[in-house]
Amino acid sequence: MSLHVLTPVLHSIELGAAVGLDVSLKLECVQPSGSFKIRGVGHACARKMADGARRFISSSGGNAGYAVAYAGRRLGAEVVVVVPATTSERAKSLIGQEGAHVIVHGRSWQEANEHALSLLTPDSAFIHPFDDPLLWEGHGTLVDELAAQMDRPDVIICSVGGGGLLAGVAAGLRRNGWDATGILAVETAGAASYAAALAAGRPVEIDAISTVATSLGARRVCSQALALAEELTVKSHVVGDAAAIRGSADLLDAHRLLTEPACGASIAGLQAVRTQYPEARSAVVVVCGGVGVTREQLNRWLAAT
Ligand SMILES: *Cc1c(COP(=O)(O)O)cnc(C)c1O
């Protein structure tokens, strides 16, 4: 049983015309958990349950924790999500609505994560938000679907937090023989841990996270995100918060889809395709989605830029 749904591909005349490309959107924002995360998380949870796990533990108050909560409810497993005190009431209530047990512990993600790990028992499994081969295998199903939905695009654009989505897209491109497709890996300047890793030649910890695109806020990317750049063409692109917010607004205006700036960053990335991949004629944007946004919040962000 797969917990994710097959998502539509929308050919966007409007966003394409603005950048002179043939643009398609892979709508991960319509997944039941509101983001692509359920692909990998659902796959990992189902596999760990088959291996005997009866309880899932997460330390993400964001889309990863929400996807674990959704997966646990669907699979009939108990879920514990440990979040720091800084987590919004809305995030806690969304996760709670899925029947997960939300524990508030500590003031930083590190403290919450340590507590989460201390709760592990022999029949429970920790679900990492981005660094697990099962996640990448699951995320890759979005490319499997694309291969049945359209011709191979020249470029695929995805956002990068810890690099799980990027690793999954790469795995999907390879297993579908789409190695010639270039990847544009987009992040915001206040969460540019992938750009830092590429520059250093290894995953490095960036000093601080400072961006509205909180779902991209991993201080260090997984090493797989770097390793795959040796087999496929991956180019990094960093945008400002204002561009990411504008990207979400553009998507909302063009297609009536509400997404986090973490996703808007990839829409903004469209503008860099012609310079980063001068030969490219077509691009797919992974509309990664995210539940951490409301109409009011997007308006506040827009007003502040
Ligand atoms: C998790 C997430 C990302 C980043 O994914 P990584 O696998 O951490 O790189 C981007 N956008 C949204 C909406 C997310 O939930």
Automatic annotation (TrEMBL):
<dbReference type="InterPro" id="IPR050147">
    <property type="entry name" value="Ser/Thr_Dehydratase"/>
</dbReference>
<dbReference type="InterPro" id="IPR000634">
    <property type="entry name" value="Ser/Thr_deHydtase_PyrdxlP-BS"/>
</dbReference>
<keyword id="KW-0663">Pyridoxal phosphate</keyword>
<dbReference type="InterPro" id="IPR001926">
    <property type="entry name" value="TrpB-like_PALP"/>
</dbReference>
<feature type="domain" description="Tryptophan synthase beta chain-like PALP">
    <location>
        <begin position="7"/>
        <end position="289"/>
    </location>
</feature>
<keyword id="KW-0456">Lyase</keyword>
<protein>
    <recommendedName>
        <fullName>L-serine ammonia-lyase</fullName>
        <ecNumber>4.3.1.17</ecNumber>
    </recommendedName>
</protein>
<dbReference type="GO" id="GO:0006565">
    <property type="term" value="P:L-serine catabolic process"/>
</dbReference>
<comment type="similarity">
    <text>Belongs to the serine/threonine dehydratase family.</text>
</comment>
<dbReference type="InterPro" id="IPR036052">
    <property type="entry name" value="TrpB-like_PALP_sf"/>
</dbReference>
<dbReference type="GO" id="GO:0030170">
    <property type="term" value="F:pyridoxal phosphate binding"/>
</dbReference>
<dbReference type="GO" id="GO:0009097">
    <property type="term" value="P:isoleucine biosynthetic process"/>
</dbReference>
<dbReference type="GO" id="GO:0003941">
    <property type="term" value="F:L-serine ammonia-lyase activity"/>
</dbReference>
<dbReference type="GO" id="GO:0004794">
    <property type="term" value="F:threonine deaminase activity"/>
</dbReference>
<dbReference type="GO" id="GO:0006567">
    <property type="term" value="P:L-threonine catabolic process"/>
</dbReference>
<dbReference type="Pfam" id="PF00291">
    <property type="entry name" value="PALP"/>
</dbReference>
